[in-house]
Specification:
The protein is mostly helical and 1245 residues long. 64% of the residues lie in helices and 1% in strands. The protein is built from 63 helices and four strands. A two-stranded antiparallel ribbon has the order 1-2. Strands 3-4 form a two-stranded antiparallel ribbon. Helix 19 (349-365) runs parallel beside helix 22 (386-397) and helix 30 (513-545) runs antiparallel to helix 33. The chain starts with 27 loop residues before the first helix and ends in a 33-residue tail after the last helix. The model is unreliable at 656-667, 827-838, 1170-1204 and 1210-1245 (pLDDT under 50).
Length: 1245
């Protein structure tokens, strides 16, 4: 039927009831037929064409309670579908009263509640009902009801309850339509509805019914403009009520105990409400941010309230919201964004922690926005509160660093994080080290690929970590060791040895010179720990088998000492001591064997890891309480960083063939060659056993002939190191020996001296060494040879290591070297200033050039000194003659006292003089390491060597001090009488030298004591130091006040290095004891005209000056100066004790000039040291070159007499590279004395 045919009428008139009262229906089967037929016809009618009058009877019949409350579910389902169609056909009006509509919708809701059962036979009817409601917009009728809140609330409750993830999508969309209509049509939304919607965003609801959560999200987004004010009101009520309750509870401070407990419970409850509300805000921000437009300003207000908990919640919520939406939200709410950033400076550490944790997450989620926060995050890394600093470090370490995160993190943040690795708090240090290492591990691929931007920003991380070794803190060292093979080298994840070697070389090649020293120092720390652990295991085994009470007591005492030393390497020293004592008592051979195998240099990486795990597993089974405490020992001694399996690959990188292949391919072998060379040198010095299995590759002659001269020299140097470490390790082969002989005869200087040494270590090569020595001696004066320095260098090796071959030529060679070489005027400056035989490319005012840059005449003289010294060192003691010793010592004395000159009336060019001075001083120090030569050195020699520390040339004094004197003292190779010389750096213009010496004294020398409980060697050196000062050429008896002002900084520097509250009384007593002695008469090569009485008086003046300065230090530091209970004696080699009569004759009046005391008292403490040091740096001499001293003892103005310390590190730049044959990086090498350069090889001999 079309519209032109007239209105449609309902043709079927159903009979539902068995009586007129409609309280009884027809049979169920008949009722089903009637309802089905009616439903079908109603479904076919169109709203636009239907004659609604034909529906009047059915409309009222369908409301009969006997139908809507029928016990058969299907009857009710059909009835509701028919009513839904009636409403569709009558729309937009309804043929029912308000009460009837209310009844109808309650029945509808009851039917919709059954939508969850999709297997029910009547499910299609309920789905039809839902579809009708959604499409006809029937829920609009609810909005017209005067009290619709209850029905609307029921709708939301039921529909959110029936929606399921497995429902068809169309049903979920229709539910969404119905709910959306219920929000759009009414003038207001019931609070219960808001509660139901927000309930779907709770964590539990999301987990239980994710479909309901999605429905709520879609609904909120679709009706955001409607829900905004209601959601704002909801959160406002919750937040305001909870905040007011907390404020009221906090104000009741005078509650009794029971009330206080109830108040705390109430506050906690209100805080939980606040947390729940803020959690909902976060979830809404993720799913329906449009509903929060009015809530965000409310959160901004929370950032500034007094309640700390509220500020924490608001800071966290806004932090997550900004991280979620980024620039969009920050730009829209600029005030909120600015206020949130301001919380970084909140007075509460908890708020600052919350802020920085979320700020750091911006790198991950909002890299572009995070750029605004770089400076602020760096600021939090320097926060006054350690927990804030720790949280910042942790947050940065937790980042997953991709390319966008790499670009976002500022260099300032990385620098600040590196500084936190040195934080004074262990928890911060630990977190910073772990975070920095984790970052490096994640960016490593970018660094290895050659990304320069990444290398500039991230490549310095290993250097920052290895520089921590300079702090010398067991806690830091243990932490670095724990992450070394993990995040930095990643050896635990890398499976093949070649890749491990590549990673090690890449990391090592990126290190700064100081960081490389730190790396080596960590390895040396491992070596020291291995030695101590091996001693510990031996004593444990001896203790187990010992059956003698006396020997057991000795072993126990030795074991306690070793345990103390091992424990000092780790944090929580007391716990480690106890654990090691318990471990020793276990006597478990499996654990002991496991530790030994772990630190055996002959084991490969896999074997070390295997033994680590097995021994720790064994320990956990027999003594689980010891596992956590002692595990760091396994990490420390386990050779998992430097391992023998890396050696073949390192040798491959150092080979000339690898370098050539690198130049024609894309691999990194050429780039890593120098790093591999350095690492192999270190391994050779520290763990030479690792090279034993690779000795054939090391001594491969093909590598000696394949490369250029420099590559050949480096390979020979490596062979020398190995040969020194492993006796009789140089193989004698048909190829190697002739090659070495050829280098000795025709090679470069370094090739000749290295090859000569290798020949001396080759079994059966004595005859060859004798032939070569004879040939060289025969050609000593052959001036037709273009370059004689290689022969002299080789001869110095033969003199030292092949003494029998050299012995028959020794006297002849010695006389020639002294008279014809060292006394030769070649290369010297005549009195008119003309330079003879000038072959050096250097300006006339240069005071230093590298040894390689010296001309032939200079090199010959330097190696002549070395030949003479090695002659004495190489000869057996019983074969030495007095004449030979005096000739060599006399030569060295002249060179040292005359500043590198052999003759006082000649003027050698400064580069020659300085090299000869350095060489002579180094050689005398070498002789001092042998007891029989030490006895031949007198106090004048000690004074002369001390003055080298103040040489005008920076390279001379720094090299002698840091690479010669200090290492010899630390290793105890020379007598402690040379310790005072190091304090003469007090006036050095380079602060790094002073800092190095202070570090060495505090960390190393102060630990040395001749016997337990006795004064340390640096404490005992005070009087020797005063003796040196008394003989210093800058002392002027005619100007006492100026002299005291000049010498005060020396003693102040000594005090700053040595003096503590525990030893100030001892030092005070040492200084006072000096007045019980006189200066022992001796030859003084510096102050020839000064009488012995004058020296003694100077000593007494310095004695009182020292006590005055010690008392001054004690007062400023609040240290008590007590009477020292022990008896002290001074060294009789330089001091002569006074008899009782002589002591009584010592004048009672003060020796310290009153004018000095008066002037010092008027000068502020802050100004005193600054003025003295500044003046000294400008005008005070380093009295190193005695040739420049007048030696006449005449009094001169102090401002004119001293010679200036003109040679500084900065002044020397541009004149030479760091590649001096003797040393590299002199100024930085000894911040930890153990950190001497591995480049210090046989060049030093």
């Amino acid at each position: 039927m079309t519209q032109d045919d007239g209105p449609q009428e309902l043709s079927f008139q159903p009979k539902f009831f068995a009586n007129p009262s409609q309280n009884k229906t027809v049979t169920i089967s008949e009722l089903y037929k009637q309802l089905k037929k009616l439903s079908k016809e109603l479904n076919g009618l169109e709203q636009e064409t239907v004659d609604t009058q034909s529906l009047d009877t059915v409309t009222q019949q369908l409301l009969a309670p006997s139908l809507l409350k029928h016990k058969e579910a299907g009857i009710v389902a059909y009835a509701t579908c028919c009513i839904a169609d009636i409403l569709r056909l009558y729309a937009p009006e309804a043929p029912y009263s308000d009460s009837e509509i209310k009844t109808i919708f309650n029945v509808f809701i009851d039917q919709l509640q059954l939508l969850g059962d999709q297997n029910n036979q009547f499910f299609p009817l309920r789905e039809y009902l839902l579809t009708s409601l959604a499409t006809v917009r029937t829920p609009a009728l609810v909005a017209m009801l005067p009290d619709s809140e209850q029905i609307v609330s029921r709708f939301f409750t039921v529909l959110f309850g029936v929606v399921k993830p497995d429902q068809p999508h169309n049903i979920q969309m229709q539910i969404l339509d119905v709910l959306q209509q219920l929000l759009e049509e009414p003038k207001s939304v019931p609070q219960d509805v808001i509660d139901v919607i927000l309930l779907q965003f709770t964590k539990r609801r999301q987990q239980d019914n994710p479909a309901a959560h999605q429905l709520a999200s879609d609904l909120a987004n679709a009706t955001a403009d409607i829900l905004q004010k209601y959601i704002y009101q909801y959160f406002n009520d919750v937040i305001v009520n909870a905040s007011q309750l907390r404020a009221g509870q906090m104000s009741n401070e005078n509650d009794v105990s029971g009330q206080r407990k109830e108040r705390v419970t109430s506050m906690n409850s209100s805080l939980d409400d606040l947390r729940s509300a803020h959690y909902l805000i976060l979830e809404l921000n993720k799913s329906a941010p449009g509903t929060l437009l009015n809530v965000i300003p409310q959160l901004e207000e929370e950032l500034c309230v007094e309640d700390v908990d509220v500020r924490i919640l608001a800071t966290g919520v806004l932090g997550e919201m900004f991280a979620e939406k980024g620039f969009t939200l920050a730009k829209r709410y600029e005030s909120t964004w600015k206020t949130w950033k301001g919380r970084r400076s909140d007075t509460s550490q908890l708020v600052r922690i919350q802020w920085v944790e979320h700020a750091a997450s911006f790198y991950q989620h909002q890299p572009q926005l995070s750029r605004e926060l770089n400076d602020y995050i760096a600021e939090k890394l320097n926060d006054v509160d350690e927990k804030v600093r720790q949280a910042t470090c942790h947050s940065l370490g937790a980042l997953e660093i991709n390319q966008s995160v790499q670009a976002a993190i500022g260099e300032g943040v990385i620098e600040a994080l590196g500084e936190r690795c040195k934080d004074r708090k262990p928890s911060v240090r630990s977190e910073a080290i772990i975070s920095l290492a984790a970052m490096y591990s994640q960016v490593y691929d970018e660094l290895e690929s050659g990304n320069m931007a990444s290398r500039n920003k991230w490549g310095g991380i290993p250097s920052k970590i290895f520089m921590l070794r300079y702090i010398n803190d067991p806690d830091i060292d243990s932490k670095v060791e724990s992450i070394l093979t993990g995040a930095i080298l990643n050896f635990t994840k890398i499976k093949d040895d070649r890749s491990r070697c590549q990673r090690l070389l890449f990391v090592f090649s990126s290190l700064t010179p100081k960081a490389r020293n730190g790396f080596f120092s960590y390895m040396r720390r491992q070596r020291d720990a291995i030695k101590l652990t091996d001693m510990y295991l031996e004593l444990c085994e001896k203790q187990k088998v010992s059956d003698n009470a006396e020997s057991s007591g000795v072993i126990d005492q030795q074991l306690r000492l070793v345990v103390l030393k091992i424990s000092s390497l780790f944090p929580e020293k007391a716990k480690m001591e106890s654990a090691l004592a318990q471990l020793a008592s276990l006597h478990d051979t499996d654990v002991y064997k496991g530790i030994r195998e772990t630190m055996d240099p002959k084991n490969d990486f896999k074997a070390v890891r295997k033994h680590q795990k097995s021994s720790l597993k064994r320990l956990s089974s027999i003594a689980p309480s010891l596992l956590e405490t002692t595990a760091p020992i396994w990490k420390c001694v386990g050779l998992t960083t430097i391992n023998r399996v890396l050696v073949p690959h390192l040798i491959e990188h150092t080979s000339s063939s690898a370098s050539h292949s690198a130049s024609s391919s894309n691999n990194n072998s050429g780039q890593f060659a120098a790093a591999a060379e350095t690492l192999l040198g270190y391994i050779t010095n520290v763990f030479p056993e690792m090279l034993c299995s690779s000795s054939s590759e090391l001594f491969d002659t093909a590598e000696l002939s394949a490369g250029d001269a420099v590559a050949t020299e480096e390979r020979l140097a490596l062979m020398v190191r190995f040969a020194k470490a492993i006796p009789n390790s140089v193989p004698r082969s048909a190829d190697l020996e002739p090659q070495l002989v050829s280098f000795v005869r025709t090679g470069t200087l370094r090739q000749a001296k290295y090859s000569a040494y290798l020949l001396t270590q080759m079994t059966g090569s004595e005859a060859q060494c004798a032939v070569l020595t004879g040939d060289m001696v025969d050609n000593l004066d052959n001036h037709h040879i273009e370059r004689r320095s290689p022969s002299f260098a080789a001869l110095s090796r033969f003199a030292r290591y092949a003494p029998k071959a050299f012995a028959k030529y020794a006297d002849r060679v010695g006389q020639y070297l002294v008279q014809s070489v060292l006394m030769d005027p070649l290369g010297e400056v005549d009195m008119d200033g003309a330079v003879e035989n000038d072959s050096m490319d250097v300006s006339e005012d240069s005071e230093w050039i590298s040894r390689q840059s010296l001309d032939e005449g200079g090199l010959v003289k330097v190696y002549a000194v070395k030949v003479l010294t090695n002659w004495l060192v190489g000869m057996e003691r019983q074969m030495l003659t007095r004449e030979s010793v005096q000739m060599v010592l006399g030569t060295l004395r002249q060179l040292i006292r005359r500043g590198g000159e052999m003759q006082q009336d000649r003027r050698t060019r400064m580069p020659h003089c300085n090299h000869l001075l350095l060489t002579a001083a180094s050689c005398m120090l070498k002789l001092a390491s042998f007891t029989h030569f030490e006895k031949a050195l007198n106090s004048a020699d000690m004074l002369s060597l001390s003055m080298v520390v103040q040489a005008p040339c920076y390279e001379v004094r720094s090299t002698f001090l840091l690479k010669k004197l200090v290492p010899a003292l630390v290793s105890r190779r020379i007598h402690v009488r040379y310790i005072p010389a190091i304090f003469l750096v007090a006036y050095d213009v380079e602060p790094v030298l002073r800092d190095n010496i202070k570090h060495v004294v505090e960390q190393r020398l102060s630990q040395f004591r001749p016997t337990p409980g006795s004064p340390s060697v640096v404490e005992d050196s005070l009087c020797r130091f005063l003796y040196i000062l008394a003989h210093h050429p800058d002392w002027d008896d005619a100007q006492p006040v100026a002299t005291l002002e000049l010498f005060t900084p020396y003693i102040e520097f000594y005090i700053s290095c040595v003096c503590m509250a525990q030893n100030v009384s001892l030092l005070f007593c040492y200084a006072g004891e000096l007045k019980a002695y006189r200066n022992r008469p001796a030859v003084d090569g510096i102050n020839k005209q000064t009488t012995n009485d004058a020296f003694t008086r100077r000593l007494y003046v310095l004695s009182e000056l020292s006590q005055y300065l010690l008392r001054e230090k004690s007062i400023s530091s609040n240290w008590p100066v007590n009477v020292y209970p022990g008896k002290l004696t001074l060294s009789t080699d330089i001091f002569e004790p006074l008899s009782d009569t002589e002591k009584a004759a010592v004048p009672r009046e003060p020796f310290l000039d009153p004018g000095f005391i008066s002037k010092r008292a008027k000068t502020p403490a802050a100004a005193r040291s600054g003025v003295n040091k500044r003046n000294r740096a400008k005008s005070v001499a380093a009295p190193t070159a005695p040739a420049a001293a007048s030696g006449d003892g005449s009094s001169k103005p102090l401002s004119k007499r001293p010679r200036s310390l003109s040679g500084s590190k900065k002044a020397s730049k541009g004149k030479e590279s760091a590649g001096d044959g003797d040393s590299d990086d002199d100024a930085e090498i000894a911040e930890d004395v153990g950190m001497s350069s591995v480049a210090e090889t046989s060049d030093e001999e």
